[in-house]
Amino acid sequence: MYKCNPCVYRKSELLQEEEHRVLQQGTQRQRDMDDKEANRPIPNKGERGLGNEKFKPVVPWPHVEGVEVDLESIRRKNKAKNELNQHGGGDNNQQNVIQRQYLTFKPQTFVYRDPVLRPGVLGNFEPKEPEPHGVVGGPGEEAKPYVLGPDYKESIQASIKEFGFNMVASDMISLDRSVNDLRQEECKFWHYDENLLTSSVVIVFHNEGWSTLMRTVHSVIKRTPRKYLAEIVLIDDFSNKAHLKERLDDYIKQWNGLVKVFRNERREGLIQARSIGAQKAKLGQVLVYLDAHCEVGINWYAPLIAPISKDRTTCTVPLIDYIDGNDYSIEPQQGGDEDGFARGAWDWSLLWKRIPLSHKEKSKRKHKTEPYRSPAMAGGLFAIERDFFFELGLYDPGLQIWGGENFEISYKIWQCGGKLLFVPCSRVGHIYRLQGWQGNPPPVYVGSSPTLKNYVRVVEVWWDEYKDYFYASRPETKALPYGDISELKKFREDHNCKSFKWFMEEIAYDITSYYPLPPKNVEWGEVCKAHNLYLFSEDCF
Question: Which residues lie in Basic and acidic residues bias regions (predicted)?
């Protein structure tokens, strides 16, 4: 096992208090952890660093009803303690470390060996036997398409309208079904240091169908080594479906506390519900976010977590495969290079795009299945070290419901010293909503155009002079109110975050080859015909 330096790595007080609470509940795992902590550093948990002890985010947390731990009061308490240490009242080693860390986001390296490719030698995390079927010969096993006959047409259409998927077929497929392996063959021969970080898997849902939600949970439990799965945290964003109430509470009892559900007291939207999930998830060192209609692939965990175990400021994203919402077959996404590898990108109206992996990125790898850099992520599926996510301020609390948060977190990571990697050997299937879905309208308190307002907040904070290209593409957003962003800009200044020009030249250099910069607007408005001295809105075009 690898030892960590006790002078450098200290548990945050928040983690210590939470472990004490769990210990009182009689959790054997935490009891063992505390016994070890009393005698020596722990290779995994002891390496979490000083994030919550020193760093005071300038971005306020979203208000959450019923949060067990008051994070703001803990930060105030820790601030007073650190000030005492800095004036001679504390450990000199501790003081020196505090002075070095978190002035900017400098990588904090864990004691972790790099993965090793051994061609022909099955990887140490690979299953030794073929994955068992949920139901032998059952529908949808091995991700084969399951097509229902015309007798089900009306019920299928009704389920698509309500949930966005063919729930009739989904409900007939085992929650523990086997899936096909879409990885490159080379992925099977990677060997990973077993000193991986543990994870809390966070899943946010709002009025999700039963079987798609539960198949997500089942797949995580089935395909994740138990020693690394600290908890699965379900955030119910104010659902009103009966099957997501008492039935869900009763169903998850079979896992004896591994799966937990927390319910928002009002509709917060996907973005802020994820921030709430970060606060509720207290046991894992890494936060793994999944959408509520996914299936993780074979040996998905080790490749995804290994880069974070090496460098705590690395955020990783699995390759996202396409689950057909009608027949539940799983296929690779279209596009990308000859191997199907793509980088996350955007056009200048801030719509999500995928572009082929560039020759520059390919040249950085010795083996084609190594993780590679991406300017942005799609946003629904990713892993990030928990304390690092809190140091980044979680999501901008001014972003509402859905949209733009994937770019905000991507820019924040890159421009403030971290990095974002796509991981070819970690694959997760995702169901995309079908045409005919009635959707989930935002609550009344949100107001109009929340997604466009989100986009404006993101470009105003992170794009610098490049924001003019966004307004050239979306001139109608120029007059949208987007709220106060002064604290977010102060965050950039306080942490010496790099410019968007640097980001475009060093990381996102290939985007303009596919989406050229548009000409900037000189003026924007409406052209109208005059009737004598009056203008009428119907005469404007």
Answer: 29-56
